[in-house]
Amino acid sequence: MICKLRYGNTNTFFIQGIGGGLLVDTDFAGTLPAFYRAIKEHNIKSSDISYVLATHYHPDHIGLISELIKQGVQLILINTQISHIHFADKIFRKDKRLKYETINTDNSITINSKDSRKFLKNIGIAGEIISTPSHSEDSISLILDSKVCFVGDLEPIEYIDAYDNNIRLKSDWKHVMSYNPKIIYYAHANEKYFNLIK
C-alpha cells in the first residue's frame, strides 16, 4: 500500500511493508496537526509508522522528524546524509514559533545505499535506495521493485534540457531510468506515469 499525503507544501508518502510502515519525507516544522489529519484521512494510525526516510535534509522535508522520533519512529539515515542532517537547524532557529527540535540520531539506523535492499527486505519492502545528488549532495531516491520511484526534489525529467551544465542531473536520471519506472513521485510536482513497452 502506498499513500500520498499532502498536508503542506511537500508531498510525503507512506509505504506499508509487512514488517513496518515507512514514511518518505515530512513537511515543514509546525505541520504536525495537519499531518495527523492527513494520515487519519487515509486510515493510517501513528503507530503504523515504524520508520521515516528523508530524501534530503532541507527544511521542507524534515520538519517533523524530531517529533516522530519522540513517538518511537526510527530514522533511516543513509551514510551520505550524515554530514547534512543539521543543515536546517539554523533556518528553523530564526522562527521561534516553530519550536523545532534538532534531530537526535542516537536511535537512528545508518546504512549504505548498497545495503539498503537488504534492510528494506527486512521490513517487507522490495526495493533499494540510490544516491541522486544533483539537487543536493545528500539527496537520495527510493526505487521499488514495483517500478514506483520516489525522487524528492530531483528536477523533473522533462526539464533536463532547460538547464546548463546538467551533467549531474542527466546522470541521476539515467540511473533512475535504468530501473524502467512506471511511476515517478515528486515532492513538489504531480507524479509522472510512463508507458512500459515490452
Explained architecture:
By secondary structure, the chain is an alpha/beta fold. The chain has six helices and eleven strands. The chain has helices at 32-41, 59-62, 65-70, 89-93, 116-122, 167-177, and strands at 2-6, 11-17, 20-24, 49-53, 74-78, 109-111, 127-131, 140-144, 148-150, 183-185, 192-193. The strands form two sheets. It has a six-stranded mixed β-sheet.
**SS-based structural class?**
alpha/beta
Largest sheet entry: 6 strands, mixed
Q: Average the pLDDT over all residues and give the rounded result.
A: 94
Low-pLDDT residue intervals, each spanning 5 or more residues = none
Helix and strand run:
EEEHEHHEHEHEEEHEE
Task: Assign a percent range to the helix content.
Answer: 10-25%
Give the helix/strand layout.
Blueprint: E1 2-6, E2 11-17, E3 20-24, H1 32-41, E4 49-53, H2 59-62, H3 65-70, E5 74-78, H4 89-93, E6 109-111, H5 116-122, E7 127-131, E8 140-144, E9 148-150, H6 167-177, E10 183-185, E11 192-193
Parallel strand pairs: 3-4, 4-5, 5-6, 9-10
Antiparallel strand pairs: 1-2, 2-3, 7-8, 8-9, 10-11
List keywords for this structure.
198 residues, alpha/beta, 6 helices, 6-stranded mixed sheet, single chain, 5-stranded mixed sheet, globular
